[in-house]
Amino acid sequence: MKDSKFIKINKKRNLGIQFLRFILCLWIVIIHCSRIKRNHHLYFFRGFHVPTFILLSFYFFYNTLSSRNIDKIIDRFKRLLIPYIIWPILIYILNNFFIYTISFGQFKSIIPIKSLFSQFIYGSSVHGIFWFQFNLIFLSLLFTIFAFIFKQNFLIIIYFLGLLCIYLQISEINYYFFVSFKHKFIINIASLIELLPLATVGCFLSKSKIADSIYKLPFHYYFSLLFYIICLFRYKIFSGLKGFRYPNIVINIFASVIFLFIFVNISFDKFKYIDRFISNITQFTGGIYYLHIIIRDYFKGTNFFLAKSRNYYYSFLIYLICYTLCFIGIRFFKNNNFKYMFI
User: How far apart are CA 252 and CA 48, in angstroms?
Assistant: First the structure.
């Protein structure tokens, strides 16, 4: 009975995290696809979305790492590598062989084959948003190697590695070392320094099971978390560091942890069927992220009126189109590994 109760609670708490993923994914789509109103810059451009994704990814990956479960590790890399390889190939084919019928806004000519190979190496020549996928794959591989080499000492190693990266970032050594190179590959490598501590924190939070102990916080604690996150949005706390993508490493760690604590405590018990609704709207966040730039760039080559206005409705439309394509794709490829292109 105790185990079944824990599984039931854990399932409902995961719904809160899934809902957070939905918000973060929609946040990214709006930033990439819409003109942000001036009075909304403070919230949309604070940049907590990607750091939170990194923390959540390793929060859930830690148990697989600590148990060194080969099958689950292989499954993770399938989930990351298949979209990383297939989507750029599809963009390359559609642009180069159907260029007169399909127009992609970011490409005005034939994509050279060397750009496709560069895409695979560092994730930024054909499908630029896959710089994130490159970082996620690299960090996953690095942590996996450490988990197998150091075993019980794995957490100690990534702890000191995380501290080293924080030091390199806040001292701006990372920035001044890489800034002179001015190449996307170098920028992606530099971004690893900015994001690795978040992966480390995600592992430590999972190991400590601190989220289990804060389930159903008293109201004043929950109010405090909301107060802290509002302050992080509205005021420049721990910010102003030089960097490349997410340089304000301390504020990103604080914000990501607070987001986790807030949404892990959200309960949908009082709302009938809400759990099924949340599960449905959040199941394709990966696929939506992979697709939304492709759909946006296709609309750039049309006279579609929302593409010209680029208001928030345009982002919602792109989100819905991507969701629909993922819904169709997952049913078409549900029995093979191509399903990872959509989830």
Answer: 6
CB 275 within 8 A of CB 12: yes
Phi-psi region of 240 (alpha: psi -120 to 50; beta: other; left: phi over 0): left
Please report the beta strands in the chain, taking only residues with DSSP state E, as ranges in sequence order: none
- Which is it for the CA torsion 127, 242, 194, 257, positive or negative? negative
Tell whether the model's pLDDT for residue 197 goes beyond 90. yes
Task: Please write the tens of the pLDDT for every residue from 65-108.
Answer: 999 999 999 999 999 999 999 999 999 988 888 754 455 555 66
d(CA 111, CA 160): 42
Distances (CA, A) of 292 to 95, 133, 135, 288, 337: 16, 15, 19, 6, 21
Q: Could you give the CA distance from residue 313 to residue 247 in angstroms, rounded to a whole number?
A: 30
Cα dihedral 101, 106, 110, 112 in deg (nearest 10): -140
Judge whether 62 and 260 are in contact, CB under 8 Å.
no
For residues 330 and 342, the answer to whether their CB atoms sit within 8 Å is: yes
List the chain domain ranges.
Answer: 2-341
Three-state DSSP at 145 gives helix
